[in-house]
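Inverse folding, one chain.
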């Protein structure tokens, strides 16, 4: 923590504002929210004054102090963007020495209104996700902003992303390679090996129940695998607005007795599932990193997931897990893994060793270093610390 504090002090960073779409306590919170909350906590522990502004979280108070930093939750899913920007422009949120914009879908367009120092954190490019989560007209707008407008607006901005594969996508869209930094996600030290594997094949999937994760295709894949592995058990952990539809699909396929939609589970139960699982899997079409993959890896469990940006960085194909081309490829590779205990052991051991190199302290340090570089690069205007 001392190093974090030293870097911030040397760059003149004491008060940092973070703008994000959702908060950790939102019912749809996922890896992006875990990332923001963890970094904010570690920065606060290092002595920085951190303020996080998000949209409202259902059933939660609008203002709280959590883990040493301040959280303001106001505005709906779309209102949060103009409201947050207006408060920053009018300095109603107080003075700041640095700004972190978390671009999760719709950007806050900080280059148009925020003086340096600032950075933008982008977990992944959305591409086909727009059509999966938005009405057709809004999807066109989102795609236009991401492909055409944002690369121009953010061309001179320091963008931080967790995966080298995502950086390549950003550069392909027109972002400057020298202005995109890669800072991998960390793994909480609570995720460790322990206990025994399930006596029967157990496959676990973890994530928000939303279209981009393609859990409908995952369930169909697991049903087919059950035909070849009669003892197969599966658990899907997570909440989201697709829960009812997925529950109906499980019922239609007659899979209730072996495929469980567990909802949100306590961390201790999640760790136990990772330790018992023969593999974790995902048929997602988009990921910024694959946080659940490295959590499972830290427990010694290999992953079989889609070959997409993010997964290309969280899994080393053939060494710490297996990558498949689409759901069909994932099915083939998962079938192979379930049949080969030697392969599972080898991949699991390598996954555990690699996961040990990912820490949240390193993530918090890397993101702060990017912000500090911007603070040293240009003089601060309008929000000087005194």
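Residues assigned per position:
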């Amino acid at each position: 923590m001392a190093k974090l504090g030293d870097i911030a002090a040397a760059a003149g960073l004491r008060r940092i504002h973070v703008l994000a779409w959702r908060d950790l306590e939102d019912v749809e919170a996922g890896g992006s929210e875990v990332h923001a909350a963890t970094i904010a906590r570690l920065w606060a522990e290092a002595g920085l004054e951190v303020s996080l502004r998000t949209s409202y979280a259902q059933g939660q108070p609008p203002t709280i102090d959590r883990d040493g930093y301040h959280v303001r939750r106001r505005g709906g899913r779309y209102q949060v963007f103009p409201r947050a920007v207006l408060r920053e422009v009018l300095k109603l949120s107080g003075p700041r020495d640095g700004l972190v914009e978390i671009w999760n879908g719709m950007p806050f367009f900080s280059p148009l209104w925020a003086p340096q120092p600032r950075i933008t954190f982008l977990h992944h490019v959305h591409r086909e996700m727009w059509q999966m989560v938005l009405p057709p007209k809004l999807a066109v707008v989102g795609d236009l902003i991401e492909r055409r407008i944002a690369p121009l607006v953010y061309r001179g901005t320091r963008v931080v992303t967790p995966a080298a594969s995502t950086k390549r996508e950003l550069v392909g869209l027109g972002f400057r390679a020298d202005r995109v930094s890669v800072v991998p996600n960390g793994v909480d030290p609570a995720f460790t090996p322990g206990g025994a594997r399930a006596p029967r094949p157990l496959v676990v999937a973890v994530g928000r129940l939303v279209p981009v994760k393609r859990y409908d295709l995952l369930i169909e894949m697991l049903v087919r695998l059950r035909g070849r592995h009669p003892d197969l058990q599966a658990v899907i952990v997570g909440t989201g607005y697709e829960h009812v539809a997925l529950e109906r699909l499980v019922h239609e396929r007659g899979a209730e007795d072996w495929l469980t939609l567990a909802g949100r589970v306590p961390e201790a139960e999640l760790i136990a599932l990772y330790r018992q699982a023969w593999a974790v899997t995902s048929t997602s079409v988009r990921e910024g990193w694959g946080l659940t993959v490295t959590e499972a890896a830290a427990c010694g469990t290999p992953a079989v997931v889609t070959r997409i940006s993010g997964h290309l960085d969280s899994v080393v194909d053939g060494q710490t897990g297996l990558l498949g081309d689409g759901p069909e490829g994932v099915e083939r590779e998962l079938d192979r893994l379930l049949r080969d205990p030697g392969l599972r052991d080898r991949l699991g051991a390598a996954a555990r060793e690699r996961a040990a190199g990912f820490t949240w302290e390193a993530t918090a340090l890397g993101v702060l270093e990017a912000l500090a570089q911007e603070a040293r690069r240009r003089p601060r205007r309008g929000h000087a610390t005194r």
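Residues 136-153 form the longest helix (18 residues). The two ends are 23 Å apart (CA to CA).
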